[in-house]
Amino acid sequence: MGEVDPGVDLAAVVERFLAEHDPATTDRLEFLRARYDAGLAWVWFPEGHGGLGLPAARQSEVDAAFAAAGAPDNAPRRNVIGLGMAAPTILAFGTEEQKRRFLRPLWTGEEIWCQLFSEPGAGSDLANLATRAVRDGDEWIVNGQKVWTSSAHNARFAILVARTDPDKPKHAGLTYFVCDMTDPGVDVRPLRQITGEAEFNEVFLTDVRIPDAYRIGEVGQGWRVATATLNNERVAIGGRAAPRESGMIGKVVEAWRSLPEKRTPELHDRLLRLWVEAEVARLTGIRLRQKLAQGQPGPEGAATKVTFARINQQLSALELELRGEDGLRYSDWTMVRPEQVDMTGRDHGYRYLRAKGNSIEGGTSEVLRNIVAERVLGLPPEPRVDKDVPWKELQR
Amino acid sequence: MSELDLLYSEVEEDLRATVRGALADRCTPAAVIAMYDGDRSAVPGLWKTVAVELGLAGLLVPEAAGGAGASAREAAVVLEELGRAVAPVPFLTSAVIATTAVAGTGAALLGELAAGERVAALAVPLTTGPDAPLPALDLTADGRITGAVTSVAGALEADVLLVPAGGGLYAVPAEHARIAPVVSLDMSRQLADVAFDGAAGELVVADAEPAVRAGLRAGAALLASEQVGLARWCLAETVAYLKVRRQFGRVVGGFQAIKHRLADLAIAVDNGVAAARHAAAALAADDPDVPVATAVAASFCGELAVTAAEEAIQLHGGIGMTWEHPAHLYLKRAKADQLALGAPGSHRARLAELVGLPG
Ligand SMILES: Cc1cc2nc3c(=O)[nH]c(=O)nc-3n(C[C@H](O)[C@H](O)[C@H](O)COP(=O)(O)OP(=O)(O)OC[C@H]3O[C@@H](n4cnc5c(N)ncnc54)[C@H](O)[C@@H]3O)c2cc1C
Q1: Which own/partner contact pairs does A354-357 have at CB distance under 8 Å and 24+ positions apart?
Q2: A268–B359 C-beta distance less than 8 A
Q3: Widest CA span of chain B, in angstroms?
Q4: Cα–Cα 20 to 30 A to B262, which of A239, B57, B59, B159?
Q5: pLDDT value at position A291?
Q6: Which part of the chain is the Acyl-CoA dehydrogenase/oxidase C-terminal domain (chain A) (predicted)?
């Protein structure tokens, strides 16, 4: 395979692909696998791994051409963590072998991924995590408890951070792994949340065996790899390319336009302010993407995520108030285990409650403000009394 | 709608460096503070530097008409830097608003403005937004203009006023008007009340309204970049101060309450940059989205600059309240800018019509 011409007409490439793979007659999975093999999955990935080595901004041309042809997509909402976090991390830190094994079925959605990071004793202070991985020949034996694990009940694989050296200070003793969720030592238990459903889980790991070939990055380098994952997570949450009036603002303006009798001047004023803020946040996301073009996101993603969380919460609250009496009704409290997470899905009550998680998941807004203050503005770091102390001596 | 480039090009960054360098030399805070005590002596030299030596007066004028043939994107970068220095020059009023208003004409005035030989001001109150009712002065049968306009920005620096009268736009030499300086909240863009008693003018645009609105729209769209420049200075200056100011045995910028306020401000400034860049890029591309982009940027950045200046003063403590420290220059300019060319609320009201969100 030669270098791809940066000026390549992607719509034409898709058209040629479609001529050979008619979406109407090709099996969905076969179609998606062929699309991956043709480099049309994520064009900014390298050739051979579902991409063409082009700027990420050009993906929209490909997606539009496939959508116009009525082609099946890879149901990205079902695999948010796989696509948004696991894949870029594996691409940046994985071996060729790992990329070949994991990326294709991840992209096609055959294998769903989850994120085994947070623990009962390690949330914002993720580096304090206690799940232990002990080397045993070509394998690692893992024991511990993870919590708040979204989609663990659907997942085939997980990205996992575990402690491999308790004698080192907390950041230095971590290692990053891929964990097979079908291992008999993995026990996934639903955790019901504020919306009534169980989107996240507790995951108990008991003598789980992970081949050393599933280690991502060097032993002891887990914090660095995890930071790359988290930066990608914040961009994935806050920096999405989206058309005007999409996401939460789309839901609220839809309600506003269909409920003229509910409008008040006070709500109108708040709506317009939030419309402006949502549009500005969207433009900020576009600008961030243009800046990143390629390469790994830095701490800037933290800023977009703080804004995204605040606006979503204010907008979903506004919709409830706009609906008045209807805002007092909730669709259904039945405990279900959703196949996918759609923060703007279901009804207004669900959106209002689910949005509360936006300022907690993927780093709380307080912690993200610390990151902006320290890494963007260069202000002094928070006192870190535990930074240089061996992890095993820390008080927990 | 193809995606507009919201970054700064290399050429734009070079332009920024040039303007910043010139202003650092020739636009000191002390000179701007002196304007509040009536000393406007810094203005002519500074304007000569900006308009003629740097050749920025003609940025928005095509080369064929004697200008630099640049676009709103470059003008926006200049305004960011002028805002950063609260520079007391009539760039916005003459090189953006008045120039845009006469851009479609073949009038000699356009070339003279581009060369920095003349300075123009549109004779409307500074508060006039691009969609607001416009003042119109009386025009007698023999083409003489009579009437008054209050709170005009750029009139003190102008040698020609562009006056909407009797449906047309007239160029009236400043000496034919009575221009009374106003003690203004923002003396770095001092206002004047302007009156005409049968003044003779030259018709430059037959149909004034679209020309005036185009000028005001460009002004409102690009004012957002000035506001970003003001906000950036406030953030950078406050962060720098709080990295060295110590209380309770610690650097004050290390207290989390302060860090979070500054982080929120940094996030808001980042958002403002995107909004202002988008408005400038839309204007430069003559994109159909200009009205929405302008309303969004004006609404957002108008409030951003005020917030930034208020935070700068609060987080400087007592020194921020003094005449000597430049923070007050930024608050006065930011507050005046917020009311200029349509207050944020009026831009949002217009937005409600543009995007179909009736009250
Ligand atoms: C809906 C949802 C889905 C999630 N999905 C996943 C997942 O799939 N995988 C996964 O690994 N995790 C997941 N999480 C976990 C999430 O990352 C953590 O909840 C988060 O990092 C916060 O940790 P914590 O819950 O332990 O809160 P704590 O860290 O205990 O925080 C408690 C409060 O203290 C504040 N705080 C903490 N430290 C500081 C500080 N230094 N300065 C100022 N304030 C501070 C916090 O902002 C918060 O307000 C999910 C969470 C939610 C809500």
Answers
A1: A354/A194, A354/A195, A354/A316, A355/A248, A355/A309, A355/A312, A355/A313, A355/A315, A355/A316, A356/A194, A356/A313, A357/A193, A357/A194
A2: yes
A3: 76
A4: A239
A5: 85
A6: 220-377
Distance in angstroms (rounded) separating the CA atoms of residues B174 and B155: 8
CB contact under 8 A, B254 and A380: yes
| Residue to mutate (ligand 1; options A114, A124, A366, A384; most atoms within 8 A of CB) | A124
Could you give the C-alpha distances from A369 to B33, B237, B269, in angstroms and in order?
35, 19, 14
- Alpha-helix runs per DSSP H in A221-334: 222-238, 248-258, 265-292, 300-323
Classify domain B122-207 by CATH architecture: Beta Barrel (2.40)
**Nearest partner of B76 among B273, B234, B215, B267, judged by Cα:** B273
The mean pLDDT of A254-274, rounded to a whole number, is 98
DSSP bridge pairs for A179? A158
Pocket test for ligand 1, best of A148, A231, A234, A359 (most atoms within 8 A of CB): A148
Mutate to test the interface with B, among A264, A266, A279, A294 (most CBs of B within 10 A): A279
Phi and psi of B205, rounded to 5°? Answer: -135, 125
Amino acid at B155: A
Active site residues of A: 233
pLDDT given for residue A295 in this prediction: 60
Give tens-digit pLDDT for B47-83. Answer: 999 999 999 999 999 999 999 999 999 999 999 999 9
Partner residue opposite B253 with nearest CB, options A268, A372, A379: A379
pLDDT in tens, B89-112: 999 999 999 999 999 888 899 999
Q: H/E element holding A13?
A: helix A10-20
Instruction: Please tell me the distance between residue A126's alpha carbon and the centre of ligand 1 in angstroms.
Output: 9
pLDDT at B343 over 50: yes
CATH 2.40.110.10 fits A113-222, yes or no: yes
Are B122-207 and B210-355 the same fold in CATH? no
The CATH code that applies to domain B210-355 is 1.20.140.10
The full set of domain ranges for chain A reads: 1-73, 113-222, 225-394
Task: Assess if CATH 3.10.560.10 describes domain A225-394.
Answer: no
Residue A1's pLDDT is 46
| Residue B275 near residue B294, CB atoms below 8 Å | no
Residue A215 confidence (pLDDT) above 60: yes
pLDDT of res. A232? 78
Helix (H) / strand (E) containing B275: helix B256-284
Q: Say if residues A73 and A39 touch (Cβ distance below 8 Å).
A: no
- Looking at this predicted complex, what is its ipTM? 0.96
What are the tens digits of pLDDT across the range A34-62? 999 999 999 999 999 999 999 887 888 99
Does A384 contact chain B (CB < 8 Å)? no
What's the confidence (pLDDT) of residue B26? Answer: 94
What is the pairing mode between strands B120-122 and B160-165? Answer: parallel
Least Cα separation, residue A236 to chain B (angstroms): 17
Provide the pLDDT confidence category of residue B1 given band limits of 50, 70 and 90.
very low
The pLDDT value recorded for residue B2 is 62
- State whether the beta carbon of A113 lies less than 6 angstroms from ligand 1: no
Residue where the block lists tokens 């097979």? A180
Contacts of A227 (CB under 8 A, 6+ apart): none
Q: How far is B270 from chain A (nearest CA, A)?
A: 7
Q: Collect all residues with Cβ–Cβ distance below 8 Å to B308 and sequence separation of at least 6.
A: B230, B231, B234, B235, B265, B268, B269, B330, B334
Where exactly are the structural domains of chain B? Answer: 10-118, 122-207, 210-355
For the domain made up of B10-118, give the CATH fold.
Butyryl-Coa Dehydrogenase, subunit A; domain 1 (1.10.540)
pTM recorded for the entire structure: 0.94
